[in-house]
Amino acid sequence: MPFGEIFGKLVDTLIGGPVVKPFPKEPVKVPPKWRGKPQYDSEDCTGCRQCERVCPPSAITIDDKKGDFFHYEIDYGVCIYCWYCIDACPTTALSGDDKSGLYVDTDRTKEKLNDGVPYVECPVCGSKILRPARTLVVRQFKKYTPETLVRASVCPKCRREKTPEEIEAGIEKYIEEHAVPRD
Amino acid sequence: MIIGVWVLWLIALFIWSLLIGGIDRKIVAHLQGRYGPPFWQDITDFLKLFRKRGKTATRSSSIVSDVALIVGIIAVVVGLSILPMPTVGGYTQLLSTSGDLIILAYVFALLAIVYVLIGFGGKSPYTMVGASREVSMLLSYEIPFILVIVAMGYRAILLTGLPVSTIFSIAGFLVLKQKMALLLLDPIFLGSFLVLLILGPAIVGAVPFDIPEAETEIVDGYGAEMHGPRLGVLFGIKHMKLLLYAYFLWTIFLSPVTSNIWLNIIMTLLGTLLMVLVIYTVPRAVSGRFRVEQGAKFYLLGPGLASIVLLLLSLI
Amino acid sequence: MDILKPEKSLWIYHLNTGSCNGCDIEILAALTPKYDAERFGVKLVGSPRHADIVVATGPVTAVAKESVLRVIDQVPDPKAIVVVGVCGITGGVFRGGYSVAGPLDTLVPVDVYVFGCPPKPEGIMVGILKAAEVLELKRKGNYHKEVVKISEHGETI
């Protein structure tokens, strides 16, 4: 580059003023398709473990042997923010709507997501099954309320072996015993 | 009395050299479209370095670097005692003798030798490479520098008509300034000034020729093993060397002589800043680093030949 | 007085312990005109002996481990260590690899973690400014941090 051009550019820069982003005064602006932290919504999780299977650095660990709880953990110190888990999720349990863009901490153990899905009782036979996901409840009953949640959480064994009348009677009995608000 | 005033002037110049460093960073930042650090940043850096405590490498010799730093401080003080200080009714030197222009040339060479000593005292491969690069740069810019100084000295004697025993004295230039309006109207002095400007980046270690302290190649070169207070002293010496060279160029060639002392002081401070802008800031903002052989070839072919021509012209 | 505060002058040393270069490019981006970390007094230095803050990237590879420990030992006190990127924090995708000698905080005490793969340059700037706060606490003498202890299987105890 000839010297005249360089000096011309310098003069342009001096006249144009600094091009610095107003960052510390204003919050970070991330591009619309920016990939941030994956967020987890336990109400919508079906427990299919697809996210755990596709995660390249194994940042997602699932422990379903811990008592009455389907233990779900994302370690953001391992996560590479690739969003494979969000693509693999059949419902909308994992989403990437976090736009803060700044993940800085003095303690690495704080940057972790600890959540999980509780086990619920089957209203008919009383065995423990994973709480049904919101998407599945809405698909079956068109709304997500405590009553429809109870109706959806009939275990597969009862659905297979019992008649609809028995199931309906079991559900009614359970709702009355546990004082579940009706629709 | 005059020594007390001179010591105050020395301290003021030291603070001014740190401020110049900060202003230089600010201007480079604005040339690159940034805001840059506050203009007192180099004072903060200097004071911070005295509060750091580190371990010296077992191999490196701290005695050599300590001696080198003391020599550097002495060289700076000697240089400032020779250069004219603004006083009532013009400029006066604290120490004046025939041949003090040559002493000044030695001061700049000595400051380069200080860097070489620090490098060889460090005994790390990086400091050794930095020191040998400093030697090769010294050999390439020192020849035109000395030749130009000699040409200027002869020319000053010729023009002033002073006795030959006062040859190479800065006092001759002060006399000459009373006679001539602007020294640069003389072709020999104009040529010398231009050659000295081109030599500037190499002497003060500005970016196209900061080959001895290339931080991306040889981790800061000769100063790589320095830390804490010693690095602070080296930081101060580097700033003072830059100021000394700018001060030398300004007072010898350009400074207007007035009888008002405050006007003289302000003109000196702003003049040194202007010289720093020309020899340090602008080259730093617009160029990258040269290789060693490129730098040596450039100085020996360009200013080297020009200085020989100037010397021959001044002898005629 | 801001002039006298040592935390206003942050000389950073960029230490690559075997990174994939993604985080290194973002660190350099934080020094470019668009982000301009120099307005906070940040300056990139070449030698660890001049540094206040070590900005480390990458999982510590087995080959680099000795050099990394020596370089961090050469940084004069008070110093702060910032780890940039998930590789330096836990090992990231290289976690448990045969040539990984553990994340950096199992070897030396790490003060600030910047999460991301790679993080945004703003994140790195915020990390460096947090490290300045850590340096101020260290100067006043009320800061203490230990090396993270990990089990044989690579889990934090």
Question: Could you characterize the architecture of this molecule?
Answer:
The complex is a heterotrimer of chains A (about 180), B (about 325) and C (about 160). Chain A has 7 helices and 7 strands. Chain A has 2 domains: about 25-120, Alpha-Beta Plaits (2-Layer Sandwich), CATH 3.30.70; about 120-185, no CATH class. Chain A has a 4-stranded antiparallel sheet with strand order 2-3-6-7, with no helix packed on it. Chain A has a two-stranded antiparallel ribbon with strand order 1-4. Chain A has helices at about 5-15, 50-55, 85-90, 135-140, 145-150, 155-160, 165-180, and strands at about 40, 60-65, 70-75, 95, 105, 110-120, 130. Chain B has about 325 residues and is mainly alpha-helical. In chain B, about 70% of the residues lie in helices and about 0% in strands. Chain B has 10 helices and 2 strands, in the order H-H-H-E-E-H-H-H-H-H-H-H. Chain B is globular. The termini of chain C are far apart. The chains are: A alpha+beta (about 180), B mainly alpha (about 325), C alpha/beta (about 160). Chains in contact: A-B, A-C, B-C. At the B-C interface, helix 2 of B face loops of C.
Q: How far is it from the N-terminal to the C-terminal residue of chain A, by CA?
A: 76 Å
- Mean pLDDT of chain A comes to 82
Count of distinct structural domains of chain B: 1
- CATH class term of the largest domain in chain A: Alpha Beta
Number of helices of chain A: 7
* N-to-C CA distance of chain B: 44 Å
Structural class, judged by helices and strands of chain A?
alpha+beta
Strand numbers in spatial order across the main sheet of chain A: 2-3-6-7
Most extensive protein-chain contact, per-chain counts: B-C, 35 and 29 residues
- Rounded to an integer in angstroms, the radius of gyration calculated over CA atoms of chain B is 19 Å
> Which CATH architecture of the largest domain in chain A?
2-Layer Sandwich
Low-pLDDT ranges of chain A: none
